Amino acid sequence: MNSPTLVGSLIFAAVLVVVIAVVIQLMMLGWRRRSLRQQELIGNLPAIPDEVGTATTTLRGVYVGSTLAPESNERVTAGDLGFRSKAVLSRYPEGILLERIGANPIWIPQSAISEVRTERVMAGKLAARSGVLAIRWRLPSGVEIDTGFRAGNREGYDGWLEEAA
């Protein structure tokens, strides 16, 4: 390889690295701005009650994310709601508890739940037929969001859908 070709290749590689770094920085800036904008909209999540009854149904799986209802691709990034993680979803007479690994638990009061259904696509995640359990609920701020959960065993969804009816 002659030296002019080597120099041209190195310059091209350096420019490519700079362009990739700039694109990543812009993506991170957009994520932070969206999070700040949504933080005002979302407000504080409901607190977990001190005492709850016994769990009627429990599923193990993955917290897919939350979206602003009815848009299935408008992902909520405020707080730690935007981070996907392994989770346990438990239904109580007073509401639903979503315990996430590496993130704060989410308490959904029974009075705030408007719908429990299955979806194929949520928060940009594509699952098998009826692969995501979507819980639509109203936050204390008045905003409706959909919280998505993909169970390891999707046969357990039947109990959740029957209880919601």
From TrEMBL:
The chain crosses the membrane at residues 6-29. Keywords: Membrane, Transmembrane, Transmembrane helix. It comes from the Bacteria. Residues 42-164 form the PH domain. It holds the Pfam family bPH_11. This is Transporter.
